[in-house]
Amino acid sequence: MHMNVPPMLKITLLDSAKELRFRLEGRLSGPWVNELRQCWLTASSTTEGRRTVVDLRDVDFVDPAGETLLRELRGSGVELAAATPFMKAVVQRIATAGCDTVEEKPSRTANALICTDPLGSHPGAV
User: Could you tell me the CATH number of the domain that includes residue 63?
Assistant: First the structure.
């Protein structure tokens, strides 16, 4: 018997004095959207004064609910970092819907598209 199991999303929290980073791997879809939302709600109470980043380097799919959540996180001042052409396009859509600028910045492995807010209207944005 074959069970219909939704594709996985791995969420790794990298917590330091200056930054809280959510490193995502896999597919941001289905029940995993709410899982990321719960992780964010739990962790957001500890981010005061620190940069918060959702690292999308290893995400290969985002459904509409996942894109909506990323837009909500961005609206809360979270940076979205992407490296693949697919994820850069997703971040670009989110950026044009609510960010002031989008800049190309190098990451360890590839160029990353990072949505930024130069006017400082979102705490935690660079």
Answer: 3.30.750.24
